[in-house]
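Incident review: delayed structure delivery

Summary: a single-chain prediction request sat in the queue longer than the usual turnaround. Root cause was a stuck worker, restarted by the on-call engineer. No data loss occurred. The affected request and its eventual output are reproduced below so the record is complete for anyone auditing the incident later.

Affected input:
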Amino acid sequence: MWRRANMVMGSAVGTHLIPSISGYTIASATPAGFDLQKVVDYLSTFNDPLVFWVVSAVIGVSLIVFLVLFLSHRTEETGKDEILKSNAERMEKRGDFLQAGQLYLQIGATRRAIQMFRRAGAYTHLGDLYLEKGKVRKAISCYKQDENYEKLAEVYEKRHDFQLAADAYERSGDFERAAELYARLDLLADAARCYLRKEDYEGLARLYLDRGCLEEAAGIYARTFEFFYQRNKEAGKAIPDKETLKILDKCIDLYKKTEQTDKIAHYTGLREQFEQRIEAKKKEEAAKRRIKKRLLLTKGPKGEKEKRSSSSKNRSPTARAVSSDEGIIVDTELASLIERGTPPESGVESASKSTAPVPQRPKEKRPAEAKAKKRKKKKPSATKVDESVTALLMKPSHSERYTLIRQIGRGGMGHVYLAKDNLLGRLMAYKVISMECEEDQKAIGYLMKEARSTAALNHPHIVTLYDVGKEGDNYFLAMEFVEGETLKALIKQSRLTIPQVLTIFMQLCDALRYAHENKILHLDVKPSNIMCRKGPQICTKLMDFGLARAMQARGSQTTARYTPFYVSPEQILNRNIDHRSDIYSLGVTLFEALVGSPPFQSGDCIYQHLFADPPSPMERNPEIPPQLDAIVRKSIAKKPRDRFQTMGEFLQAITEVANLPQMRMPATMPQQLSAGS
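Output delivered after worker restart:
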């Protein structure tokens, strides 16, 4: 009987007293290692009825307490869910769909949450929800709709869609990660674009270096050095910083590996110059420290100050200065050396060591050597062109050939003056080459060579070069004087009419066609290098042929001399430069003449010339006919093969537009230049 009771009790405990409430079993809530079935089996072994009922009662009471607590907890949770649901509905009525969706999500109402996120336009939240549910495609669609490229890139990368991930990283602004993925896929052009957008030029060089492209890597390191060296110069640093010098060392090392002797010589020479400057600076600083130690800086009681002050009176007036306020006695001669940054000579040092009076010679009895040394002419500073030019204006030159009248312009190459040729009695433009250029004999030699070639050009729309050479201490160019304004000035003053622009550029195309046929490139075509003669008829003159090439010969200054608004992509990369580079620059100039500004005038112009699509001129000036818009866009194509292949083709295309019925009108000079001279 007891055995039957045990079995009944065990069955009751095992089946009826272990209910499943909302899928939550009591067994699942028991401590780890507790097996309820073993308890039931254990109870069935009791033969003593008293023990059996006591144990069963304890177990039954425990289960009842647990059920009460469980139901209480579920009631509390249900109450919270009801509150959250109520709040979500209230937020939905108020139109705060994002907050409502988040509340619905907390109570497990996923479908309702999705609806709220859609109505809120919170596609990133929706994408996160889909991603959590494993619906990757829907998540990607949501991230795209929200333009959340960072999340999109992470999803693509986890799926090993590296090209899509790289594109998304680039769109999100993470150019470094994008470049890494592009490089992994051997998409070098895309990786290079990302490194350029990040201005990580060293990373770009490593990209080519890792693939064994030593020449390309060396060229990129060279341009990187030039870029940072120019920044250093603009900051007033004569010596590049350590990072720039490291880049230069890598550049030299790669050029040595590729055995490019001319590049090795150039950059090694620069490195030696920097080493000399560094050594000179160290010596100068050491000299300053020695001088500072020898200055008599004393602070003490008033009597001691007076004593020192009186003893200093025995010294020469030029070698002492007494500060009565601070009691500081300093040697002004040495102090001036410190201020000027001039290392002291041995004579000055020995004079500073002694406090005894320094015997002074009368001026008329000083040795001739001292006078000669004092009168010795110092070499002009590289940045002070005006002083030498002022001397030219005040003092006639040795040959008495030219007389400078007044300054009429200035630029990167030097200053331009209106001058008179005393031999021929005519006015001309006289350009004095800056001292910075003069010190680079390679650039000067190249300039002379280019000038001789340019002097042979005889065209009505090219400024004639009359003379080139060195007069006194200055190199000069003597050229035709054009009275008028630059095209740059005209564009700034007022918008030109389309017939005026067409006439101007037909003349410029013809001038460049003639130069190209004579194997001469300009390479710096821009509005400020185009003169418009004063008078009723349009007459333009292209000037400064060969100066850009002369600057290119100077190596480290190349990047500074190209005008970023008008430079062609191949000039930036310093690769395969030919006459089509002039076509690109003239196309950019034509764009500016038509709309009043160049196509790329904000942001990183260099990057935009390399990769960005130029805007349509018609978008900025609706008066431009479609045929002319197409001409401009073709002339400024990124790849040279996509442009006009000759300046003659460019000229023919512009002439066809000029012959359109709506363009057949008198093209005279703008009003500010229409008065004849």
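Verification: The CA atoms of residues 163 and 182 lie 7 Å apart.
Action items: add queue-age alerting; document worker restart procedure.
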